[in-house]
Amino acid sequence: xxxxxxxxxxxxxxxxxxxxxxxxxxxxxxxxxxxxxxxxxxxxxxxxxxxxxxxxxxxxxxxxxxxxxxxxxxxxxxxxxxxxxxxxxxxxxxxxxxxxxxxxxxxxxxxxxxxxxxxxxxxxxx
Length: 126
Fold this sequence. Notes:
Layout: E1 2-5, H1 7-14, H2 18-34, E2 43-45, E3 53-60, E4 76-84, E5 89-97, H3 104-123
Parallel strand pairs: 1-5
Antiparallel strand pairs: 2-3, 3-4, 4-5
C-alpha cells in the first residue's frame, strides 16, 4: 500500500520530537505493509465517518511504558487520522495529541480530516 500525506499533516509530523516521529513512522510503515488488514493496538477504524477512516495510535505514559532515556517525560496520546482512498493508497490527513481532550478531539478532527480528504481528491492529478 502506498502512503501519501496532505501538507497539513506533513507540517505537523515534521514538527514532532524525533523520538515521537520515529514511533509514528513505525506504525505508518506497519499500515503500509498491512493495508486494510492492519489491526489494533496500532490501528483502529473510526466509526461515524462517511469514508473508510482509521486512526494510527501511539500512547506513552511515563513510568508505565518501557523506560528509555530518549522517551518523552510527559504523557502523550498521539493520533493520526487517515482515509483509505483506494485499495492502494492511505492518505494521512490529521495528526494531534488528544491528551486532556478525550471526547472533543474526534468531534473536531474527524470533520477536519474529511474536509482535507475532499480537498485532496479535488486537487490530485487524475
